[in-house]
Amino acid sequence: MSPIPMAMCGKITPHALSFARLMAPDYEIVFRFQSSQEFHSSFPLLMRKEPVNPLSGIGTNNDNPKPQVPAAIFVGGGFDDEELKGMMAMEEAKQVPWVAPGEECKKEVRTLGDLMSREREGGPGEGVIEIVVRRVKACLVLQELTHAAILLLCAVLKPCLSSGELRPQKFDVYLTHQLAFCWCIETLIPFVGPGASPKLLRMAWLMMLLTYINQLRPKMKPEVLASTPLPTIEWPSTWVKMTDAAIGATKDKSMDPHFVKVVRTLKDFAQSWRKHERMFLQACARFDDEFAGWTGFGEERE
């Protein structure tokens, strides 16, 4: 499996080199930006797959005639809040998720500030870089697991036991629990040691895989979720209206603890991962509009 390309913003060269080395082989640093000015001038070219070399020379896109587009951006040390906000405000920068430290950006990106707060007293050096790498990998893996959980929630076609045909049907209660499980991992990661995060993620992945197999390996259809129409997004009023409408729509829905849990979990995820807010809104809208009960219990004609 090819490594996932990432861009890195960092002003401290030794730390940047260590980070790039430790992220391999799962992730590949394709471009390192060492200043906000370089980011503003080079990142749009990078997103258009135009050849551009990092001034630092760090990144596999250096002198590469076929540059790779990063799937995520990591921000290291040296950038103040104004620089970071300016970089994130670029239209091209809104197309990819960010992993960045700093309390000021919690409402803008999925941050590492909470995940790293217990590790900062260790001081600079290779040990701290290793901790950062583990936390970054944990965030990226959890992001992928959460995306899979959302597809399992509301974008699957499940084979009928009698005919084997794929067809839309009620929401699978066991597949639904995978989203809540991912939120539990999200909540626990800041409070566990750096060596425990990979174990939690492996456990979450194995649980999701086991549930997927037990529930007849439904076919995930990302285009079903992507095609869900949405109103104009205005945070937080859009979510307030949507959750009020979903939970307060009928007594049957509001009295179903699993239904309420899904809506609230989607809202909480959207607050943490603002770059993916549209995906969570689409999932919530589809779940609310089509919810007519639960399935997944192996009953006849399921």
Features:
single chain; 302 residues; alpha/beta; 2 domains; five-stranded parallel beta sheet; three-stranded antiparallel beta sheet; globular
Tell me what the structure shows.
It is a single chain. The chain is of the alpha/beta class and 302 residues long. It folds into 2 domains: 4-96, no CATH class; 139-295, no CATH class. The chain has 12 helices and 10 strands. It has helices at 13-23, 36-47, 81-88, 113-116, 126-154, 173-188, 197-214, 222-226, 237-248, 251-254, 257-272, 277-290, and strands at residues 4-9, 27-33, 73-75, 98-100, 110-111, 156-159, 166-167, 171-172, 219-220, 294-295. The strands form 3 sheets. The chain has a 5-stranded parallel sheet with strand order 2-1-3-4-5. Strands 7-6-9 form a 3-stranded antiparallel sheet. α5 (126-154) packs antiparallel against α6 (173-188), α5 packs parallel to α7 and α11 (257-272) runs antiparallel to α12 (277-290). The longest helix has 29 residues, at 126-154. Mean pLDDT is 80; it is low at 102-126.
SSE map:
Layout: E1 4-9, H1 13-23, E2 27-33, H2 36-47, E3 73-75, H3 81-88, E4 98-100, E5 110-111, H4 113-116, H5 126-154, E6 156-159, E7 166-167, E8 171-172, H6 173-188, H7 197-214, E9 219-220, H8 222-226, H9 237-248, H10 251-254, H11 257-272, H12 277-290, E10 294-295
Parallel strand pairs: 1-2, 1-3, 3-4, 4-5, 8-10
Antiparallel strand pairs: 6-7, 6-9
